[in-house]
Design brief:
With about 350 residues, the protein is mainly beta. The chain is about 5% helix and about 45% strand. It has 3 helices and 26 strands. The chain has helices at about 120, 295-300, 340-345; strands spanning about 1-5, 10-15, 15, 20, 45-50, 65-75, 75-85, 90-100, 105, 115, 125-135, 135-145, 150-155, 160-165, 175-180, 185-195, 205-210, 215-220, 235-240, 245, 250-260, 265-275, 280-285, 305-315, 320-325, 330-335. Strand 6 (about 65-75) and strand 7 (about 75-85) form a beta hairpin. The longest helix is centred in the last third of the chain and has 10 residues, at about 340-345. The protein is globular and about 50 Å long.
Amino acid sequence: MLLMLFYGKMFVKENIGGICSVTKIIGDALPNIPWQEKPSNAILPLWRYTQNPIIDRFGNKGSNSVFNSAVVPFGDGFAGVFRCDSRSISMDLFAGFSKDGINWEIEDEPIVFEGADEEILKKEYRYDARITKIDNRYYITWCNGYHGPTIGVGYTEDFKRFIQLENAFLPFNRNGVLFPEKINGLYTMLSRPSDNGHTPFGDIFLSQSPDLCYWGKHRYVMGTISGNESAWQSTKIGPGPAPIKTDEGWLLIYHGVITTCNGFVYRMGAALLDLDKPSKVLYRTKDYIMAPYELYEQVGDVPNVVFPCAALTDSATGRIAVYYGCADTVTGIAFTTVDELVDYIKHHS
């Protein structure tokens, strides 16, 4: 074992089977990140907030459910774009704000996007948003209805005025997730090509763009795992929050699905991607990192779902807070550290 000074604190760097701990998040400090210490009886690398769900199904005046939403630090608190399905079961995106990242006020009216092309502004449905800050803009990607599901792209600087850009891809596609910086001079996005329904298949691909309009250089990243090797991700997988930059690689939290006699079951996994060539997978978990164990994750409009869409990080402590949809009904939060998660990925690949 070696003693290391890291973030101004003394850590033990332990080499276990050639794998060393202490991984650095490359990014900003976030001293007010929501946090709860790991319970002594926790088995998996993510542990739930004891007061989950943090947003119930009646998060604004018209909602039937609030889930699969994205949050970011904003000002002295936090802002987010929330999926609120209405009581007529229409799907749309709503802005929300919080002082502590746990207690949220979600606006009652959906986001109204501006844009140059009226054709693109036509709204069939919007859901499952992600947010990525690049420079001074908060870029939003979501599943956008345009003759079937595709990836909508827009941005805001203040969470009051929202600008919509061109759709990234042809239908059908879901789970568009931007990296938080250009890679080799290009905007980079992960997505999961799909069909027009509740897709019973799906692999993760990477695409790049010079201008957030024209996308190409499409590369396969990783797919499902069939058979008994890692059955929890045998039907489909999809990217979750924006990848987290670390000195070990891009840390990707994703969802994996298995088809059971009781329908689809959604769990979470994690992977490390190469920093310069993020279509290259360095490590990927065979064991899941989180599963629908709790009643609010097992019972809801769509049972047995944990679906990650956002992650807050604090580079000073290595803490990570993951926001996830529970049973397509409510919103929960879970915690981990970069060391805990990276070590788990390496030991369970």
